[in-house]
């Protein structure tokens, strides 16, 4: 599960410009809208479990109340870590609810792969890029016979076929290692010119109703823990071996993070070796350390920086920012965004648009939601005294968008 | 002799194909076939019936699960038959306009009782049960859909995960089982066409009579024929939604022909077939369009019988034994 938590952070880093107050403000705005009669609606009943509750409006309506005390986050470290803890716990909780089944299902396969195919991930070349567009190595295995196996899927636009390599000593088992961007990928196998799906991988129907395999690729949290793990559908964590491997990883990386994952020259490898040896040299001597530029130590604090409390300081700060960046959007910081950016793309809005084009979508399939919008409460404007609220929750490894219509009483 | 051999070959192929489809349905659970991300529209039982109708039409759906927020429980499915019950109730109790106008979804059960309609026994099934089991349960419940119900692990409350319909399952089979190509026996041989007691009406029949035929026969559509018995149109249970969309139930004196003028423009048309068509062709059509039954006609277009999705599903699940 560690991987998943970490990936949550990665993405939320990019989008989490809302401070914890944002949620409070949103709840406030909810009550301003006079829908707190919604207590009767019991939003709990829609989802059963809603942790972070905030509202967002779909169908771009005019009823978005401006919320006043929304800050752009300035002191990144404090607020980010704050979000880290909340988001990771909630995610872990929900994973507990959902996870177990898939793990059991794949455990066997994963272990097979572990023995046959995968060298321990420690020997993977470490990723030097740490941005969010990191590609993650993923093993795709076909183990249901055949003489030639290919895989095709959303990652190749369903056009190109990627050949799988037979696993020596195991007839009918093929694998390929792909570099995939984080996200959900759908794919099928072509085995001896026949379109097939694997019984050992999660399945779902796509918007047209085709039965496909899918997997969720999770970005490794390279920046924080520096552990370049091979993600095998996030199932590694369940086996004891993987924990060991991860621990090894962590240990190794404590060392390697100091050299910032650069490709190592022979010299620096020796230097690294030396560094790993204990500092204690015996006879009361300890190793001399060159004055390395110390990483600045950050402390947690309860004091709110003046930049947030004193309007004059705040103005000064942002004016300086404006000048430094030399952008001409004068005083753009004065008007906060109406919503955190990730909440502006509501997948329900895209549904009604695509509906006109085809009648194929009989199962109500939606685009795959970004996990940061899970467990939020969305509302439409109240029409004809009917309130419509929606919430996306995980159901095991899938996402249900429940839309509840209730009268406003 | 060779045609005899050929027939036998078709017979064996069809049997094998059906067995293979059955095996497939048994190996997958309802959960497996859900999309990775999908929507589910749920209606609160305190919602007014006429408003729920708007919600259905707006979202282009014909049924929705109900949620009782007082007890936090799943409260059944709203389907077109509920609206038909209300229409019948109003027709026999025209003085109860006030009641019908203000009726909430929670009051539908009383309406059902008042008109003596047989309540649909609402079976439900857990999403991790095999599809085959879900299909069987759906067939036995005489309903065209089955809700997937799970329990929330924290609150132990029921959650409605999704609703499976006959159409969804058959489309799924048509899309994903290559074996359907081998279903080459003429459907006339399979004993899956209802030819006796097929209720039908004329263009001039009052729509309320047609609605009564729907409930009497427990069917989802009534074919409309001319004086020679040639099939010219159908009246479907879901056409009722369009009929009462205006909110007032005073259009019940219309003839069925006039009522059909209310039908939306994207009506797919009436699908027909002959006794010589093969199930493979039928499945191919199900794959391509939203069809809920096929009317079987002879070479002159005269109505012979009807083959519904439940007939097809029943054959796939239980036939060829």
Task: Write structural notes for this entry.
- The complex is a heterodimer of chains A (409) and B (321).
- By secondary structure, chain A is of the alpha+beta class.
- Among the domains of chain A are: 136-217, Sandwich (Immunoglobulin-like), CATH 2.60.40; 341-352 and 367-407, N-terminal domain of TfIIb.
- Helix content of chain A is 31%, strand content 19%.
- Chain A is built from ten helices and 15 strands.
- Chain A has helices spanning 2-15, 20-32, 43-47, 76-98, 100-116, 240-256, 266-276, 306-309, 311-325, 347-355; strands spanning 55-57, 136-142, 149-153, 162-163, 165-166, 174-180, 183-191, 194-196, 203-205, 211-217, 280-282, 285-286, 377-379, 386-395, 398-407.
- In chain A, the strands form four sheets. In chain A, strands 3, 4, 7, 8, 9 and 10 form a six-stranded antiparallel beta sheet that branches. Chain A has a four-stranded mixed beta sheet with strand order 1-13-14-15.
- The longest helix of chain A is centred in the N-terminal third of the chain and has 23 residues, at 76-98.
- The model of chain A is unreliable at 1-132, 223-263 and 353-358 (pLDDT under 50).
- Chain B is of the alpha/beta class.
- Chain B folds into two domains: 43-175, CBS-domain; 185-318, CBS-domain.
- In chain B, a hairpin with a 6-residue loop joins strand 4 and strand 5 (158-165).
- The longest helix of chain B has 26 residues, at 2-27.
- The mean pLDDT of chain B is 90.
- Chains A and B meet through helix 3, strand 9, helix 10, strand 14 and strand 15 of A and strand 1, helix 2, strand 5 and helix 7 of B.
- Chain B: One of its GO terms (cellular component) is plasma membrane.
């Amino acid at each position: 599960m560690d991987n998943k938590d970490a990936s949550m952070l990665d993405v939320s880093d990019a989008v989490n410009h809302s401070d914890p107050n944002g949620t409070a403000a949103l709840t406030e705005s909810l009550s301003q809208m006079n829908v707190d009669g919604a207590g009767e609606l019991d939003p709990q009943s829609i989802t059963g479990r809603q942790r972070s509750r905030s509202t967002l409006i779909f169908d771009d309506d005019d009823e978005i109340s401006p919320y006043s005390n929304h800050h752009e986050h300035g002191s990144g470290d404090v607020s980010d870590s704050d979000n880290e803890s909340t988001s990771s716990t909630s995610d872990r909780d929900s994973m507990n609810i959902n996870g177990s089944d898939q793990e059991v299902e794949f455990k066997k396969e994963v272990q097979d792969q572990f023995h046959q195919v995968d060298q321990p991930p420690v020997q993977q070349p470490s990723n030097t890029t740490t941005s969010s567009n990191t590609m993650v190595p993923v093993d795709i295995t076909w183990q249901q016979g055949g003489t030639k196996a290919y895989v095709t899927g959303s990652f190749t636009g369903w056009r190109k076929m990627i050949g799988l390599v037979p696993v020596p000593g195991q007839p009918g088992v093929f694998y390929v290692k792909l570099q995939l961007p984080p996200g959900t990928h759908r794919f099928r196998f072509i085995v001896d010119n026949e379109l097939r799906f694997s019984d050992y991988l999660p399945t779902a129907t796509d918007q047209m109703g085709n039965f496909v395999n899918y997997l969720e690729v999770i970005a490794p949290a390279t920046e924080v823990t520096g552990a370049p793990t091979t993600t095998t559908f996030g199932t590694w964590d369940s086996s004891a071996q993987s924990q060991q491997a991860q621990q090894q990883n962590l240990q190794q990386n404590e060392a390697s993070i100091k050299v910032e994952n650069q490709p190592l020259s022979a010299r620096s490898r020796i230097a690294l070796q030396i560094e790993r040896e204990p500092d204690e040299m015996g006879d009361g001597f300890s190793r001399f350390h060159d004055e390395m530029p110390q990483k600045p130590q950050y402390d947690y604090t309860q004091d709110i920086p003046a930049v947030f409390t004193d309007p004059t300081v705040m103005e000064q700060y942002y004016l300086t920012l404006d000048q430094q960046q030399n952008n001409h959007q004068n005083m753009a910081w004065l008007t906060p965004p109406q919503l955190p950016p990730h909440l502006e793309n509501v997948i329900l809005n895209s549904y009604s648009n695509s509906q006109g084009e085809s009648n194929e979508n009989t199962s109500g399939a939606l685009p795959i939601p970004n996990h940061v919008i899970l467990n939020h409460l969305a509302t439409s404007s109240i029409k004809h005294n009917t309130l419509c609220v929606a919430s996306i929750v995980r159901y095991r490894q899938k996402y249900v968008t429940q839309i509840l219509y209730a009268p406003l009483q | 002799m060779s045609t005899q051999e050929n027939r036998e070959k078709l017979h064996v192929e069809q049997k094998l194909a059906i067995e293979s489809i059955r095996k497939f349905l048994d190996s997958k659970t309802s959960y497996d076939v859900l999309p990775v991300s999908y929507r589910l529209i749920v209606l609160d039982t305190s919602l007014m019936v006429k408003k729920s109708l708007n919600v259905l039409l707006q979202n282009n759906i014909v049924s929705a699960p109900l949620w009782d927020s007082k007890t936090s429980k799943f409260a059944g499915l709203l389907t077109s038959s509920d609206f038909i019950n209300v229409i019948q109730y109003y027709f026999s109790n025209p003085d109860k306009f006030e009641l019908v106008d203000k009726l909430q979804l929670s009051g539908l059960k009383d309406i059902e009782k008042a008109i003596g309609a047989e309540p649909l026994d609402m079976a439900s099934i857990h999403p991790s049960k095999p599809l085959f089991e879900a299909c069987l349960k759906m067939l036995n419940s005489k309903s065209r859909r089955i809700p997937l119900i799970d329990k929330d692990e924290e609150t132990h409350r029921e959650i409605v995960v999704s609703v499976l319909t006959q159409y969804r399952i058959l489309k799924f089979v048509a899309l994903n089982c290559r074996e359907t190509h081998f279903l080459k026996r003429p459907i006339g041989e399979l004993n899956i066409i209802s030819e006796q007691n097929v209720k039908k009406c004329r263009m001039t029949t009052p729509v309320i009579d047609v609605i009564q035929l729907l409930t009497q026969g427990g069917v989802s559509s009534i074919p409309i024929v001319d004086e020679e018995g040639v099939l010219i149109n159908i009246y479907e249970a879901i056409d009722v939604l369009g009929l009462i969309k205006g909110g007032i139930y005073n259009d019940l004196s219309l003839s069925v022909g006039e009522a059909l003028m209310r039908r939306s423009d994207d009506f797919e048309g009436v699908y027909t077939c002959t006794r010589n068509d093969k199930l493979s062709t039928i499945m191919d059509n199900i794959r391509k369009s939203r069809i809920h039954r096929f009317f079987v006609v002879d070479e002159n277009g005269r109505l012979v019988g009807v083959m519904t999705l439940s007939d097809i599903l029943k054959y796939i699940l239980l036939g060829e034994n």
